[in-house]
Amino acid sequence: MQERALIATIRRLAGHGPSALRVSIGDDCAVWRPGAGREIIVTTDQLVEGVHYPAAKAPARLLGARLVGRGLSDIAAMGGEPRLAFLNVAWPASLPERWRLDFLRGFAAETRRWKTAWAGGDISGVSGPAVASITVIGDVPAGQALLRSGARPGDLLYVSGRLGGAALRSMRRITPRLALGRTLRGKATSCMDLSDGLSTDLHHLCEESGVGAIVESSRIPVARVSSRRAVCSLDRALNWGEDYELLFTAKPTTRVPARIAGVVITCIGRCTRRVSGVRIVEADGRCGPLEPRGWQHLD
Amino acid sequence: MQERALIATIRRLAGHGPSALRVSIGDDCAVWRPGAGREIIVTTDQLVEGVHYPAAKAPARLLGARLVGRGLSDIAAMGGEPRLAFLNVAWPASLPERWRLDFLRGFAAETRRWKTAWAGGDISGVSGPAVASITVIGDVPAGQALLRSGARPGDLLYVSGRLGGAALRSMRRITPRLALGRTLRGKATSCMDLSDGLSTDLHHLCEESGVGAIVESSRIPVARVSSRRAVCSLDRALNWGEDYELLFTAKPTTRVPARIAGVVITCIGRCTRRVSGVRIVEADGRCGPLEPRGWQHLD
Q: Are strands A30-32 and B38-48 parallel, antiparallel or unpaired?
């Protein structure tokens, strides 16, 4: 596809943004006016052929949508509202035009679904696997972003939804927990999204907050998924990743409903002092360290 | 390098941002408070091994710096101030650790040079050429961004610096024209940066503004560069690209100095009505269409 034709296609797919987006695709930068009293939040993520999805038969439309979902999940984890999305792709010449268009359509449809303006990006060739990169810009009321660093010893530890399902159904559409994140503003003391697996992500949260944690294995909400050969196990719920649920903490005095914005909320443990490390109480009552066995970005 | 070690390295290289950057590397999103009365401007760009630079012997530190320079050049073209930079990389396992560190060092040094906070990003593996992607967020006083779409018939056409030098010295460090862009706020009627080559970029500007243009070849400031085998030619100045100078328009009544912020400014022609197209007056006085023969992003 010629560059002009492709840009015209993208402009059509991207549609018009909100009036606060003064300039979009076609200029050197997008220009956007944030609301008064808001802080800007920014996240970036990548989708690499052969790393994040298998090269063969990858469903283009779903991949485009999943890239948006991954970015928006980070916005949800901050308690924010998504506003603008930017897409960079490096695509090999062998990638069929149909696949490219489907990827762009999936990306466009998912940004529209979550009222996020597709405001720009870049397209390049590459003599190897396809690489796609997203940037999402959102905003929150100033001072109210949910950080990873706010947990304190004694805070209770919660997760949304059920974990480990991606191990058996990895190519699902992602539902970013935006409504939940919004509700947690001013209530949660810390929050992050579960992308690398609970065991690894909990270590990240504890490190940023300077606390330890103790998790009860019997409380972890394991997804009720099975295929012909396997059912979802505790191990998968702890270590598989790609859950895109929220992990958050709240003071013991904060009332946390069993369901928020339609999503089940489960208390799985509590924060401790840092020196105690990150531990898990097994089904037989024994307590040991919870090793981070989730996704390692550079292995 | 292990993920933890790499993130620690990046945090050290990135250093501390300004106080308006409340949260940086380590959380789900960066959190930044823009100043009152400012609009946000956002640009993204890519650097692909084998497309934007040769795979062999590519100088890592310079490449990291050039990726920053390319992003900041777009900020300059809007008359903006750069604030935050985000880096996504997909790197093959074969890339030496030394090369990776040098790339990150080059990226970090260049963001510091231009007082831009390195506020986040993502690192992934890939089984093919390296792909790096940058997002730069800046701001401008509300309503004062320099757009591509503001040129009107009769406006004069200017470029900064000298063009075509990249054809003979392609791996230079980029000096984004930030001070020039700032000075042009409220003076230029339109502006963009020259990355694809004057012949192609002028078509982009004319298309966005709905005008035509006529350029005098004798006025184009050709770079004074020569190698043993070639000198910089008018053809290279028109079509090679990678100049990272500014192309802008101003009303004939606007006084435009011959030098702004230390950079030579040259009037190369004027805008016409759209129906006249984009034309060039050759040295012999003949006038014909100026074909866009610069960089095509998808060829």
A: antiparallel
Task: Note the pLDDT tens digit of each residue in A15-72.
Answer: 777 777 888 788 899 999 999 999 999 999 999 999 989 887 679 999 999 999 999 9
The residue type found at B189 is T
Of A44, A131, A149, the CB nearest to B121: A44
Q: Give the 3-state DSSP-derived string for B81-114, with helices as H, strands as E and coil as C.
A: EEEEEEEEEEECCCCCHHHHHHHHHHHHHHHHHC
Residues of chain B positioned with their CB less than 8 A from the CB of A209 = none
Residue type, B53: Y
Please say whether the beta carbons of B24 and B17 come within 8 A. yes
CA-CA-CA-CA dihedral for A282, A285, A290, A293, to nearest 10:
-20
Nearest-angstrom CA–CA distance, B6 and A158: 29
Q: Which residue of A has its CA nearest to B123?
A: A297
Query: Which of A31, A52, A83 is the best mutation test for B, with the most CBs of B within 10 A?
Result: A31
Spatial neighbors of B113 by CB under 8 A, at least 6 apart, are none
Complex ipTM:
0.92
In single-letter form, the type of residue at position B180 comes to L
Residue B246: closest CA among A174, A28, A151: A28
Please answer yes or no on whether A298 and B39 come within 8 Å at the CB atom. no
